[in-house]
Predict the structure.
Amino acid sequence: MPTPSKLIAHFSRLLLLVAVLIPHVSYAAHESNNLPCIQFLKTMATGKDQPYLDLYAQSIITPKKAELRLRKLVNKLDPKSSPVRQAIYLLIQYNIEQAEGDDETKAMGYIAELRDLGEQTNSQWMIAEALLYEAADLVDKRDYDLAVSMLSEVVNSAQALEYHSLLARALKWQGNVYVDRSEYKRALQHYQDAYDIFSDCGDKLQLARVLSNISSVYIRMEEWPKADRYINKALALYRKEGFSNPFAEAILHINASVIDKYLERPEKRVFHIQQAMKLAAKTSSYRVKLTALMNLSAVQFDHNEPEQAIESAKACLKLAESYNEPRGLANCNESLAESYLLIGEIDKALSHAFYALNMYEQRGDRKGYIYVSNIIADIYESAGDYKQALKYYKQYAVDGKEYLFDVRRKELFDLQERFEARVKEQEIVLLKTENSLKTARLAEQEASENMLRIGSGFILLVLYLLFRRYSNISRSNVALEQTNAELATQSMQDPLTGLYNRRYLESWLDSAASGAFESGALIVVLDIDHFKMINDRLGHDSGDQVLTLLAKRLKGATRTDDLIIRWGGEEFVLVVKANEHEANTVLERLRRVIADETFLTSSGDIAVTASLGAVFAPTLDSLQKGWKPMLVDADKALYNVKSSGRNGYQLATGSN
């Protein structure tokens, strides 16, 4: 049996080991939290290259400071003394020029040198890095086919090299392409994969950029609260870490200004676009400058400053023409059309509007085409040509409704919620990891103490401590299981109304008892009429109260077997047990339970009505197999009610 002195010596060594490890762990954590993902480059470089590695990290986070340091470093350490050092030097120069310069040709010149260097030295990572930036430049120029091919090649190389940062950046750029092509489901999946990689290696600037990218997806989908949530996360992370990268920051402010418009925050919107313009002037990205000018023109238009809006749109158009950029040409002409309409120059407004419309049609940009159709309707209405105005307004209304349904529901039914659950999922993973670590340490300690074969009294003491520790872990596991159950419930439930959310529908259909719907069911889409006016006139608190009270009324008007879902905003979806002959009676009952009695809120009594569209499913099987096209049909019926004056219902003929 070891003597007491040997035991003391053994535990002293353990304490010394812990004392040595703690500063090491803290330093590593500090380092990973403040640097971009440069682990791969560290494996390529030597110790003498460390100053260039440090400067590469700084060129991403604070390029202006890196530019000042680079001149001094070049005088001390020749960047051409080794291929790796020269490659890192070229990447530093590119980062500085892209973020702070005004010469895109010069920036891409560094990338051309990097590719040449990679080919001369047969270095695959250098070639892949150059290929990524060349592909990104093509995405900026909307040359998507070649860009997609190059990005696929970068992804393959990054996976083969286990170059994780490069892989994440390539996935992010692939996501950007999918956004421009309106393939939002694939875009979100790529952004999520990139986010996970950047999160693992602690690259906070790239995390902010990905959050901004996700925000842009929801901007395209006109899901403004979600877009606002992600852009605020991006800006908060950017400010917290003290980054200073004009290229990245300009994009954040541009997205924020767009969201502020639709959430009716004019002062914030002006602030964000002013910041974006200042930052865009410092970058070499014409795309950022173009987007900033388009948004500046829109802000001036909305503030009834048509002359300034026209000047900004003309500057935008001039820049787009110099690069022959199709989307820019369409967007800038669209801005000019709106501004000329504001000052009553109808011919010029129509000319620019039809130019934009044709450009959007050629590019297959449905959203742009729909929006400009509305502008043309407004122009014709202003000119008194009501026949043409009605034609283009119908085109806008019908196409727009179908487009939003496709984007929000049909394509992204379950994926919209997935990324939002990441924070909760990460919390669960951390808890599980912590428990696993505790268990592993417990086993290691138990084995170590068995080997010591210490006296029985000491063994009892250790066993007691281990039992206490095991009990704590068991309690933590129980708490974790409870947390998992709570999070699972939360992910299926709307927190405001207590109703289920859209994620619940598919699982409910899978488990629904066929006997409950032997006579069929109605699938109903219900939308509160003029809900935006309630929020604008009485405030969002009153709007929330209306939603909560409506949920209670719907529960009171339906059976236990029926399903009520808050689909989003002021829209609800119901699955109600009924036969075909009862359909109209059920819909009228639902309409009246809302319209017949005012809603008592903190702002007083509010008269509320709703429009309903529905389709009949004769069997549970037909509902389970065809609920998506049925929703489309019900939504179109709802739109018809809205167009006919609201406060009514329509029963459509199902697709199945």
Observations:
- Residues 418-491 form one domain.
- Residues 1-35, 407-434, 483-489 have pLDDT under 50 and may be disordered.
- The longest helix spans residues 456-491.
- The chain is about 75% helix and 5% strand.
